[in-house]
Amino acid sequence: MKFISEANRALDSQIEDLDKPIKDLNRPINGDDDEKAVIKKMAFLEIEAIEETKNEIDYEQLERVAKLINKAKQVVFFGYDLNYYIAQSTVYYFLQINKMALIHDAMSSQMNRAISLDKTDVAIIISRSGENKKLIQTAKILRKKGTKIILLTSNKETTLVKLCDEFIYVANTVEFLNMGGIIFGVGCRYILDVLFGILISYNMD
Fold first, then answer.
1. Which residues pair with 153 in a beta bridge?
2. What is the pLDDT of the chain when averaged over all its residues?
3. What is the Cα–Cα distance from 139 to 205, expressed in whole angstroms?
4. How far apart are alpha carbons 134 and 159 in whole angstroms?
5. Please, what is the Cα angle at 129 between 128 and 131, to 5 degrees?
6. Is 187 helix (H, G, I), strand (E, B) or coil?
7. Closest by Cα among 155, 144, 159, 134 to 79
8. What is residue 7's predicted lDDT score, i.e. its pLDDT?
9. Do 83 and 128 form a contact (C-beta atoms < 8 A)?
């Protein structure tokens, strides 16, 4: 990855305090930063979010997940707040290649959709904490319906992981000042973009 290596080398001399794993970063943006520093730091954070997420990928698992999605009658996403908007963009991409996909914006609508699914469908849940009570209820419904559940989250020691068929790790940091939401969002988009790319490769004429 020439771009990443060059970007990291260029940033090393500028941002020595960021030369550590995402989980160890401490308030990467501070009051002393000018616009140039913020530009560099945000690039560094997003590159590192993708790198950390990529390094944890189980290739056999991702192939298995991609085949589940490719075979599914429809792919239904579940997630709230920022995760809803992350899923919304992937729904758009899937529809462009004729893969039926959807997400509802209302919490009640997501729950009702879960009730309507069956074993021919695939559900993708996005949860940064893995402990959202409504998503846990949704996952329990999906399990009863026989729907395969793919979970994107940052911690395998959570309630949702135990309810889902496939757990895919996404980089994250808990503190808001550490840009945790941005880091998790970038990692999620990377995983979903990879799955989208694999679907394209499966369905090339």
1. 169
2. 86
3. 36
4. 12
5. 130
6. helix
7. 134
8. 43
9. yes
